[in-house]
Structures are given as C-alpha cells and as structure tokens.
Target: L-rhamnose-1-dehydrogenase
Amino acid sequence: MSTLFSLKGKVALITGATNGIGLGMAKGLAEAEIDQIILTYRSEGPLERATNVLKEINPKVVISAVHADLGAGTEDEVVDKIVTEAYAVAQSGVIDILINNAGINNRHPFEAFPAADFAEVLRINLQIPIKLTQRVGTQMLKTKTEGRVVFTASLMSFQGGMNATAYAVTKGGINQFTKALSNEWSSKGIRINSIAPGYIDTNLTGTMDPQHRATILPRIPIGRWGEIDDFKGPIVFLTSDASRYVTGETLLVDGGWMGR
Model:
C-alpha cells in the first residue's frame, strides 16, 4: 500500500506554497518522498521558512524556487517566467505534478466592488492558473508524461458566499474547468482534479468579519476549523497512483460543511 501513495521519482510545481494550504500540501508531498518540489514565491522570508519546514520533514527532497509576483506584469509574462524557470531547474527535465494553489480574495458588496479589485481576483485565481495549466500540460503531452494537475477550489465553487462575488466566480470557474479539461486530457494520460477547502485557519480567512467567523464553528460537523496539515493526505492521494481512476473531481476537505 505504501507504494500506491509514493511520489518517488516525481517533480512537482506548486504555486502559493510558502504558507497556508499550499504549505500543507507541500508538506504532504515531502512526506510522500517526492524527489523535487518547485515553489513559486514573492518574498524571501516565507520561502526560507517553508524550505526549512520541508527539509526537516524530508532532508532528501530537493527544494527549488521561482520568484513570481502574480500581480505584476501581464498574465503571459508571469506564466512565461514561471514555466521557463521551473523547467530550467527541474532535475528530471519534466514536471509530473502541477498544483495551482495561489489565490486571493477581495471582499466588497457588489454594488461597490472596484473594477480593479474584481479584475485582480479573476487574474490570480482563474486566468493565470488556466494559462499555466495550458503551458505545463502541453509539455506533459509532448513528453507523454503521466501528469497530475490539481487546483485549489473552494466551498464557493458550490455556494455563493457574501461580499465575495469575484472569488465565487473564479472558484466556480475552477470547478467547471476541472471537469471540462478532464474530459479532454484524461485519455491522454493527464488527470485533472481539484481540492475544495472548507473554513481553514489561514491568512486568507483572517480577513473575514469577526461576527461572521463566530457563526461558522457551530455549523462545522467535525467541530473545528481546518488546519493546513489536513491537506497533506488529500494532495498525496490525488497526485499518486492511489487515485489512478479519479479524474474530473473536486474533493471537499471541509469537515462536513457541505453535507450539513
């Protein structure tokens, strides 16, 4: 059974993995003995902390980094930089796993939602992940790599939320993109799935209104907010042979929230 969940010999590229859910996912990859993790980052401090955490888990894992500010320059410039530098440092010459995790949430009532804030959420949460997937996935097809692509979706892939229309649009889009792309690429050896987190203690949920936060815990059947380590198992499952017949799915990791 351990070989079913092993990631030995694999190389993963993951965006937004220097903290929060992305770091939890990267920790899972390291524990599954993956050969190399390529992280995108914006600042040195979080990158150094994340690298230390991952090396402590698995001293043998190779940690590489690509500097990428997803909000700077054009979308194509950002994606070109990530892809070019990631393949340059990939020790095997291929990327087996792509995890599109980076995301933001700007909150405003829709009638007062600044156009720039709305566009920023669409860019970072939806447009860049789609373009990055196209670039990396095309390379996977050329090299006949048995690829795995995983997106971070959300409860708002299924629900509307409040004062977060841009976020809901992007996460609903990720859910549908997962299904549509799976239909095209699964027969070609690339599985496409998403993970939909529930309410998790991260910097992103820290922006929520305190009164709203207070109403959440009583509605989570498992009785607690999620933690980043709750994503170690799900990401290893979806990127390993343990899920070899799973594609086009959005896996809820929500403590039972959606079943309430």
The domain at 11-259 is CATH 3.40.50.720 (Rossmann fold).
